[in-house]
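Many introductory courses stop at the sequence. We go one step further.
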Amino acid sequence: MNAVSLMAETEINVPAYDFLRGNGFSPIGHQKVWRIPENIEPVEKINWRVAKDEDRTTFMRLYKELTPPMVRNAERPMKEMMLGMVYEEFGEKVGLLRFRWDCGVVVRLLIHPKIQEPEECLLELAKVAQPMYTRPLYFIVPSYMGWLEYTLARMNAEMSDLMAVLVRHTTVRSQTILANQKVNTRKVAISGMNRFDGLS
């Protein structure tokens, strides 16, 4: 039987966390979800662009440098990850992101701390993403990228409570059993966004 990893994201002080812990999930990290305001300041230029196939090498390098081993081992193989956009600063690729859709547009960032203008980077990203969608815009910031929180606060973004990232290493057969027990990991994953006004 093939080994697989089931991942979930939930606030810590909620019943879902205890439920997941009781069903074999172990915490491997923490993160916060930031809701980006709609009235973002104007920006003069946009350094984000759609990722190309040749950016995959840069993504793999940044992913390995910035992501803790426990998280890398739990997530899907890097070759299966979809690239979204790339940020270039002074001719060097220092940021990447992936999109996903839950209760809004959710951006998972991967930005190197050597970036010189993090606020410009995030402002440009918000300006690019917001006109593309009618849903709320969220940035996910894991604990190992917590240095971005100061910049997000300056942007008047609204922060969620601290969330845990959990994983359960299992097999295809036990994954089916877990599904039959109606463990809705997708619903758990968006619990940190439901606290924002306007979301169900």
